[in-house]
Amino acid sequence: MGTSIRRVSPEGLRDDGRKMLEASRRGESMAGLSTVLLTKSGKLIDVSLTVCPIQDIDGKVIGASLVAHDVTLRKQQEREIERLSRLYAALSRISQATVTLHDRKDLFESICRVLVEVGKLRMAWVGWLDVETLQIVPAGHYGDTTGYLANMKADAGGGPLGQGPPGIAIRGQQNYVCNDFAHDPHTLPWQEAAARAGFRSSASFLIRLDGVICGVISVYAGEVDYFQDKEIGLLEEAAAQISFALVNSVREESRRLAEAELRWKTAFLEAQVDSTLDGILVVDDQGKRILQNRRVSEMWGIPQEISENPDDGAQVAFVTQLTKDPLKFGARVVHLKSHPDEVGRDEIELLEQFVGPLPCGRPADAAHPRCRRQVLVGGQAVVEPGVLGEHPGATPQLVAVDGGVEPEHVGGATVGGEDAVEQP
C-alpha cells in the first residue's frame, strides 16, 4: 500500500504499469487485467488487477486505487492444461508417424519435429548408443537453432560427459528428469550452451529395441519445473511408441530383404525354366496358373494375347480345340484340378493340322533330329499325329524336306517312309 506500481512491476512489464496510471488519470477504470508482479522476496506472481481513479470533491483525479488478486495457482493450472493438451496432440501425431514411417532416420526426425512444433518444446533429439564406444550420437533432432548439438558431446560412461541426462538415463537404465538445468551439478559441461539456447529444464527417456536399451529421446523446455508427473507420463508413452516402431522397422527391413532375395531367386528360376526345351506349366492348389515358360506357348502355338491373359480359361479353351478328343482332354483337366495331389502321365493326341515351331528354335533345315518329327507320304512331308509329354522331341512339326529322307529315330519313334510307325 502506498507503493508505486512501477516498483512492483518486473522490468519488462513496466509499460503495463504506466498505461494503467495514464488510464486512471483520465478517470478510467480497469478491471481483470492480467499481469505479473514482484513480491518482496523477488518472486514473480500472476495477478489480476483492478484499477480505479481517486477523485476529490471537484471531480479532479488525485490518485488511483489498485487491487491485485494473486491468481498464480489458477494460471499454473491453465498453463499445465495447455501443456498437456499440446503433448496429447503431439502423442497422437507420433502414433501416426510410427505406423506410416519405416525408415529410422525419417521416423526420428518426424517425432522430434512434432514434439517441438505441436508439443511446443524448445528442442528434441534422439541419441543412438554406440555400444562399442558408449558415445551417444544424434540420430535425429529438431529445434536446435543455436548449434547446441553440433558442439555437444555425451556418452554413457562414468566420466564427466556421461553425467548429463542422456548418460545418466542409459547408465542407470531409467528415465532422468532435470527440472533446473542451470543449477544441476550433473549438467555443468553443457550449462553455458543451454543458457544461450534458452533451455531451463530437460528430460531423457529410454528407447529400447527388443527390450535392450539402444538410445534416448531428450527434450528441452524453456521454463523451470516443466516436467511434472503428467508431462513425464505422456513423454514416456512417446518413447514407448518409438521403441515399438523400431521393432516394426526391423521386421519391415527383414521382410524387404527377404522379398528382394525371393525376387532374385524367382528371376533366376524363371530364366532357367525359360531356357529348357521342356514345356513347364505350374498351377496352385486351386488350379490357377502361377508359372508358364515360353516353351509351352511354342509347343502348342498359343498366341501371346492368350498366354498372357490372366483368365486361364482362355488358354485351356485354345489348347482343347487342338486335341483330337476335346471332351476327354477337358475332363482330364477338370479332374486334375480337383485332385491336386494326383500324379498323372498322359499322352495327348493332336489334330494333324496343328503345327508348332521347332523346340530348338533353329531353322527347319538346320534342326537337330531330336527337334522334329516327320513322315513322308507320296514324296511330301506332312505332320504325323504326335504324342506330348512322353518323349522330348514329341512336338508335331512340319519340316520341309527333299524327296527320299532316311528314316530317323526321334524320341523313341522311327519316322520317314510311308509305313513309318511309332515304336513302343
Write structural notes for this entry.
With 424 residues, the protein is an alpha+beta fold. Helix content is 36%, strand content 21%. The protein contains eleven helices and 16 strands. Strand 1 (30-38) and strand 2 form a beta hairpin. Helix 3 (72-100) packs antiparallel against helix 4 (104-117) and helix 3 (72-100) packs parallel to helix 7 (229-275). The longest helix is centred in the middle third of the chain and has 47 residues, at 229-275. Mean pLDDT is 77; it is low at 355-424.
Give the strand order of the largest sheet, numbering strands 1, 2, ... along the chain.
5-4-8-7-6
Oligomer: single chain
Q: Would you tell me the structural class of the helices and strands?
A: alpha+beta
Number of strands: 16
Mean pLDDT over the full residue set: 77
Shape: elongated
SSE order, as H and E?
A: HHEEEHHEEHEHEEHEEHHHHEEEEEE
Uncertain runs: 355-424
What is the helix content?
A: 25-40%
Give the percentage of residues in beta strands.
15-25%
**Span between N and C termini?**
126 Å
Compute the CA-based radius of gyration. Answer: 43 Å
Biggest sheet details: 5 strands, antiparallel
What is the number of helices? 11
Please summarize what this structure is.
With 424 residues, this protein is of the alpha+beta class. 36% of the residues lie in helices and 21% in strands.
Strand and helix map with partners:
Blueprint: H1 5-8, H2 14-25, E1 30-38, E2 44-55, E3 61-70, H3 72-100, H4 104-117, E4 123-129, E5 136-142, H5 165-172, E6 176-178, H6 191-197, E7 201-209, E8 212-221, H7 229-275, E9 281-283, E10 289-292, H8 294-300, H9 304-307, H10 312-320, H11 326-338, E11 348-349, E12 375-377, E13 380-382, E14 387-388, E15 408-410, E16 413-415
Antiparallel strand pairs: 1-2, 2-3, 4-5, 4-8, 6-7, 7-8, 9-10, 11-14, 12-13, 15-16
